[in-house]
Amino acid sequence: MPGSLEPLDVGVQIPYHFRCPISLELMTDPVTVSTGQTYDRVSIESWVATGNTTCPVTRVPLTDFTLIPNHTLRRLIQDWCVANRSFGVERIPTPKQPADPAMVRSLLNKASCGSTPLHSRLSALRRLRGLARDSDKNRSVISAHNAREILLSIVFSSMDSEPSELNHESLAILSMFPLSESECAFVASDPERIAYLVSLLFHSSIDVRVNSAAIIEIVVAGTRSLELRAQISNADEIFEGIVGILNYPLVYPRALKVGIKALFALCLVKQHREKAVSAGAVEALIDRLADFEKCDAERALATVELLCRIPSGCEAFAAHALTVPLLVKIILKISDRATEYAAGSLFSLCSASEQCQRDAVAAGVLTMLLLLVQSDCTERAKRKAQMLLKLLRDSWPEDSMANSDDFG
Hints:
- The chain is an all-alpha fold.
- It has helices at 7-10, 41-49, 71-83, 101-112, 118-134, 136-143, 147-155, 165-174, 181-188, 191-200, 206-222, 226-233, 238-246, 253-267, 273-278, 281-288, 294-308, 311-319, 323-330, 336-352, 354-362, 365-373, 379-392, and strands at residues 30-32, 38-40, 68-69.
- The chain folds into four domains: 7-87, Zinc/RING finger domain, C3HC4 (zinc finger) (Herpes Virus-1, 2-Layer Sandwich); 98-177; 178-289; 321-408, no CATH class.
- It is globular, with a radius of gyration of 28 Å.
- 38% of the residues are buried.
């Protein structure tokens, strides 16, 4: 029952036939199985997913696992909800039905058939894109029909010519799916395919650029071969393209999310971090740090720490006036992981630059570090904080060190 009110407290009982026999809760998406019994979709799917092959009520084996929406019962439940609105009962929404496998198969066949008119292929891809965007269940249905292989073939079908809307639509759908190791290797092992994706990072449409960056990140993260990962991160202008997405002037959350995931994946390849610095990654990271959501901020700080491990990166961060104050300001504000990365970055910067030490002291790092070592954060974060305190001991004003001996 939606809301926090208990049925007995408000004087309204949920009708017996509106309750799911498995969960005993009000059904929000009633479906009927082959035995004629009706259950809430989530409950019966969980029942089957755990290996059960019988009907929970009748114990009769299920002859097939097709779930038929019970629209009549759902409408009755919705009417009952409306009639009992005064008791705090909220109307259940009309659920979107999962994609029909036969329809998905037909759309994929139409999209992949070279003899089908272009507008029909585009229409099929757009319908698939809409379905994929709707739900995880739809994406599972689409993926089960060899969709990724079909989409990959369409994306790379015109590398020698100007990309068409067909390629862009396929790219958009493909960016919603994880790729298998073999599919990642299919892309990563061909320098021409990587160069094609990099070229799309400079497309006039920000959506095409972001979708291409998403595929690059998926491929890098899904490729086990260190040699292939290094080959991707060494592609001409790949870092410039990713940094350009991070620097996109308008507020576009997906651009920030995909851009930082791709930059972090590429920076995990140690030998090409210099290229990230040369492409302006340092400025982009610091300028955008306040715009990232929590998970993305963690990834951004992890990337900062990675780039601080190379001399050119450390120098570039030290030269940016906002680096040290920002790292000090957020050291305890995001998460334990973010704290580790921020403390590690500050340690690298302060180890390399006396000016960074003075900037950190001026920004109030002493208070933050003393709070950090007394907090419930991870041992690794505390260890980094203690190392930084020891490094900066000679930089503190004398009056601020009166009670800090315990943290040496």
